[in-house]
Amino acid sequence: MKILVCISCVPDTTSKINFKDNDRVFDEQGIQFVINPNDEFGLTRAIWFKEKIGATVDVLHVGEASADPTLRKALAIGADKAIRIDTPATDAFVVSDQISNYIQTNPYELIIAGRESIDYNGSMVPGMVAAKCDLAFVNTCVRLEIEGSTASATREMDGGMEVLRVKLPLIIGSQKGLVEETDLRIPNMRGIMQARQKPLAVVPATESSSKTAINSFEKPAPKEAVKMVPADDIGQLIDLLQNEAKVL
User: Fold this and answer.
1) pTM for this entry
2) Spatial separation of the C-alpha atoms in residues 179 and 5, rounded to whole Å
3) Can you give the pLDDT at residue 150?
4) 8 A C-beta contact, residue 124 and residue 99
5) Dist. CA 138–CA 233, nearest whole Å
6) Beta strands 2-6 and 56-63: pairing type?
7) In this structure, how many other beta carbons lie within 10 angstroms of the beta carbon of residue 103?
8) How far apart are CA 20 and CA 26, in angstroms?
9) What is the largest CA-CA distance in the chain?
10) Residues 120-128: contacts with CB under 8 Å, at least 24 apart
11) What is the mean pLDDT of each run of 10 residues along the chain (248 residues)?
């Protein structure tokens, strides 16, 4: 069984975010990039399939050479091969085009992509890849089992869970629940050493163009100072909630 895990590199949540060029460009200076958490949940589940049923696991990233250390981390976690499609990931349309074109010539039984990245939160790429490649698609997937050529997938939905049985090939949008945070793998020294010997293939991009453009970024407004109200002054509290906070 061949599994492909799509990897996005995102800023570590502890990073201080800034913009440049009149707030039109994200400033990467001093930013630590990590594997997108939703992708890492999917990668961990893929490694579980590798250990249990002998699957092979490839990871794929659309982007530039700055992502190579993150791909090496995925190899150290246990992936067998890394592929980087060498083009800037300008928007979801470009990313989905590149992934779709790659898997149409390099088929997989299971493709795992995070349901969204934690930087842009677009939630578009796995669904667009499924549409372009005419693949079955299960989003917000929190459980996945494979038996022969059939997958049993559980997805989170409003008010509960939905269990689906799907014939492979399949693409899922992974998230927390597919594995828990305590299940995530930390590369050990042996894995890091082995990762140096594993292939990291850089392939040229196919023709594609962005459909969107960023006008500007804007940081959230800083929080205002806290107003203290005496515990016995209920009237002032109600007045502030009604006329200033406007929550009553």
Assistant:
1) 0.87
2) 15
3) 96
4) no
5) 53
6) parallel
7) 20
8) 6
9) 71
10) 122/92, 123/173, 124/92, 124/96, 125/6, 125/92, 125/95, 125/96, 125/99, 126/6, 126/171, 126/172, 126/173, 127/173, 128/92, 128/93, 128/96, 128/100
11) 96 89 90 94 97 96 95 96 96 96 96 94 94 96 96 94 96 96 92 94 94 89 85 90 86
Tokens of 71: 């791909």
Amino acid letter at 61?
H
- For residue 157, the one-letter residue type is M
Instruction: Let me know: does 107 contact 169? Beta carbons within 8 Å.
Output: yes
CA distance 198 to 205: 22
Tokens of 4: 């492909």
CB 123 within 8 A of CB 8: no
Domain edges within the chain: 2-215
**H helix or E strand, kind and range, residue 29:** none
Predicted confidence at residue 142, as pLDDT, reads 97
Q: What is the CATH number of domain 2-215?
A: 3.40.50.620
34-46: pLDDT as tens digits: 999 999 999 999 9
